[in-house]
Amino acid sequence: MMSDFEAQLRAASLRVTRPRLAVLAALREHPHVGTDAVIALVRAEHPTVSHQAVYDVLRVLTDAGLVRRIQPAGATARYESRVADNHHHVVCRSCGAIADVECAVGHAPCLTASNDHGFVVDEAEVVYWGTCPGCAAASTSQ
């Protein structure tokens, strides 16, 4: 798996470093996590990697298109490594859990707006809001 990460970094003209590999591995195993969770995951495996290094790696990987930063309204930024498509997300209003949702209409990347007003659309972002099964079950049992 690390060779896959190394190839991604090299394809993006980025140096292969231990913190970059660790962040990519953390995000592949734990999508939709915030910065603090990424730091904890990376430091669990590599205790000498600094907080600042993780922040810098997240920025570099996001700028290079290897990581996607998502920030639903009112929520902290989350990161995921699924960047090859233009999928959407569903967010729990209660606990903040996030899950991937495939495009609802047509085929990915869902870039056909009903009226683009002359814009050249290259990305669409849809966020569905609701209550996750765990929170719904908890509220019904109360």
Which SSEs are present, and which pair or pack?
Elements: H1 2-11, H2 18-29, E1 33-34, H3 35-45, H4 51-63, E2 68-70, E3 78-80, E4 88-92, E5 98-101, E6 127-130, H5 133-141
Parallel strand pairs: 4-6
Antiparallel strand pairs: 1-3, 2-3, 4-5
Helix pairs in contact: 1-2, 2-3, 3-4
Structure, described:
The chain is an alpha+beta fold and 142 residues long. It has 5 helices and 6 strands, in the order H-H-E-H-H-E-E-E-E-E-H. It has a 3-stranded antiparallel beta sheet. Strand 2 and strand 3 (78-80) form a beta hairpin. Helix 1 packs across helix 2 (18-29), helix 2 (18-29) crosses helix 3 and helix 3 crosses helix 4 (51-63). It is flat, with a radius of gyration of 17 Å.
Give a concise summary.
By secondary structure, this protein is α+β, with helices and mostly antiparallel strands. The protein has helices at residues 2-11, 18-29, 35-45, 51-63, 133-141, and strands at residues 33-34, 68-70, 78-80, 88-92, 98-101, 127-130.
